Amino acid sequence: MSAILSIKEMKKSFGSLDVLKGIDLEVKESETIVILGASGSGKSTMLRCINFLEMPTSGEIHLNDELVGTVRGKGENTNITYRESDLCSLRTKVGMVFQQFNLFPHMTVLENVMEGQVTVLKRKKIDASNRAKEQLGKVNLLDKIDQYPSHLSGGQQQRVAIARALAMDPKVMLFDEVTSALDPELVGEVLQTIRSLRDEGMTMLLVTHELGFAYHVADRILFLHEGQILEQGTPQDILFHSKQARTKEFLKGHAAFSLPNPETD
Amino acid sequence: MEFSYNWDFNSILFNWDVLAHGLLVTMQISAITLTAGLGFGFFLGLGRYSRLQIFRFPSNVFVELFRNVPALVVIIWFFFAFPIISPFEVDAFTAACLAISVNTAAFSADIYRAGIQSISPHQWEAGRALGMPYLTILRRIVFPQAIKRVIPPLTSRGIEAVKLSTLASVIAVNELLYSAKQLSAIHFNPIEAYTAVALIFFMIIYPLTRFSYFLERRLGHSD
Amino acid sequence: MYEWDFSVIPMNADLLIMGLYGTIKVFVSAFVIGFPSGLILALMRLSRFKIISIPIGLFIDFLRSTPALILLFWFFFAFPIIIGLMIQAFLAATLTLAIVAAAFYAEIFRAGINSIERGQWESASALGMTRLELLRRVILPQAIKRMIPAFLERTIELLKTTPLMAAVAYSDLLFQAMDIAQKTFRPLEVLTVVAGIYFMMIYPTSLGVRKLERKLAKSGESTVH
Ligand SMILES: Nc1ncnc2c1ncn2[C@@H]1O[C@H](COP(=O)(O)OP(=O)(O)OP(=O)(O)O)[C@@H](O)[C@H]1O
Ligand SMILES: [Mg+2]
Fold first, then answer.
1. What is the DSSP letter of A199?
2. By CB neighbour count within 10 A (0-12 exposed, 13-18 middle, 19+ buried), where does A146 fall?
3. CA-closest residue to ligand 1 atom 8
């Protein structure tokens, strides 16, 4: 089966700082990929480049075998330009959830989830509302649809944010440390939501520090180091039989998260 | 000091229609310059916020120019200098309206810009991540949140524009202050005339000022 | 097509310089009178005696919400009749600008003084200082720093109000310019240049204030407005 998302030689620098130094990645349909790496290794930048919240400095991204962007010129001198319309249509297919929820504070929960459907996908209000309710039902928030975000707990807000992204019917979902801003007792409900997404077959890339969770949901784990994929493999490979000193060192720092025992699990 | 002056407010009361007409013109100037100034200022503010140099540069020049040249100098310029190069007729009323409008536009532009800038970049990002284009994000996400923050300072700016309307008297636009000047010339009652006009302005502007404080407190707390 | 002729500017440079001098003279005089008056007004406004604080508050509000030009006309045309003495345009202008500036300065002083926490007042009065001593030695030195940007802004505003004096024929820069424009039939050149002179006086100053404000904001100093 061919890749739903393929990234070729993606680089990104901020001025003289090279943050991504050539990322190659093929993501298969329904695959769940967890990205690990030390702070500053470029995890967020990688996710943000995939949906062009940051412009990659070079490289190509194909979604469903279609190149993102518009090719200009002929022969040797081709280059890819990104028009706003290219990027907007890509972003409807690649959903993203942030650490800081970023709900729209002036809209109710229902309006938050309808907004993109109505303004971007041009769905009829009634259809958007039905779709929003369906999605909010899945994250168990149907009783909150008329509330404003400021009246919700962090975990509830994050679940609304996930519903908002999913209501756009994306092909791929990106999650950037979505539980890092939550109180420990609220982390579980959000992870549960992501886990059931995986069971439904959503294609996902997620950055997380919850190694136990990564172990259970990931089909593949990437270890990012200084803007490159240093190592990748199954959770078993990476979390227990890593070949790289850097990876081992990183994992040691996370001992507190207490990995499940591979033998009994 | 002996205080033997005989107050003569009768000459004001008998000529109330002169002041009423002046007040009407004052209101006309205020209405025109508020609409034009706050409206144009909005686009200037967007221009100043824009990522594109071709919008940003002219907006910046306009704003800095009219923020930093005194309003009366601008009025005089529009009345005496501008007609020479103007493609259309410029009477005193038009000159005053133009000058006060550009002044209001320049000052309000920065209020709008600050309002837009006060919205967290995370909100922009959330909009972009949903595939919303720039203008849609502005319209649906940023403006509705920014409006609460710009209304109090815009109200103050509006009050300032009403106060500026008195400058039109210098080029003989017959607004309220000019009416007082005429009355006092005919009836030799400058004390009564100017006191009356000062009180009228105070009665218009003071409640507006209190209202703007009220708005500031109300809108400031609801965030 | 209009033919520009800027030669009228150098030909009348002396008059313009005289006008500029007039502008600066009245600006400085108004500042020198207005600034301390503002402090006095603020202290009266903050007085514990309502019989002082309420009327002074009303007076400040009146000055702040009445257009300056009306006050100027009042001082120039009406005031002399009351006191039974002619007063010169310069005096009327200076008085008007000073009193308006004082009202605005007073509000800044008040906001600055109010921004000092209660604890400061209490801890200092525990040391046995009198109210005035306390104000002078403890409160004001702290408050002044926070007021600086607002003060400077207001002072620029004062400079921007000076052209109003031309309306009572005081020969400031604007009045001279109008005079020259009329005599030479070159209003476009003269008034444009004079607008430029005002711009060059005011713009660098307001840039400086903005820079200072940013610096204070960055270093975490609070300011009042
Ligand atoms: N907009 C930007 N401008 C300049 N430098 C940036 C920008 N965004 C990120 N960087 C730099 O790029 C590097 C990688 O940042 P990134 O946020 O991708 O790291 P990360 O792996 O997500 O780290 P963390 O675990 O702390 O979130 C860092 O050195 C960061 O300072
Ligand atoms: Mg990150």
1. H
2. exposed
3. A45
| A75 alpha-carbon distance from chain centroid | 35
Domain total of chain B = 1
- C-alpha C52/C-alpha C37 separation (Å) is 15
pLDDT band at B91 (very low <50, low <70, confident <90, very high): very high
Q: How sure is the predictor about A1, in pLDDT bands with cuts at 50, 70 and 90?
A: low
Which chain B residues have a beta carbon less than 8 Å from that of A98? 122, 125-126, 129
Query: What torsion, rounded to 10 degrees, do the Cα atoms A83, B112, B70, C213 define?
Result: -100
pLDDT digit string, tens, across residues A162-196: 999 999 999 999 999 999 888 888 898 899 999 99
Determine the distance separating the centroid of ligand 2 and the alpha carbon of A39, expressed in angstroms. Answer: 7
Residue C75, min C-alpha distance to chain B (Å): 9
Q: What is the pLDDT of residues C3-62, one digit of tens each?
A: 888 888 888 899 999 999 999 999 999 999 999 999 999 999 988 889 999 999 999 999
How many domains are there within chain C? 1
Write the CATH number for B25: 1.10.3720.10
CB spacing of B129 vs A104 below 8 angstroms: no
Model pTM?
0.86
What Cα–Cα distance (Å) separates residue B129 from each residue in A88, A113, A156, B144? 8, 13, 20, 19
CATH number of the CATH domain containing C209: 1.10.3720.10
C174: domain range? Answer: 8-218
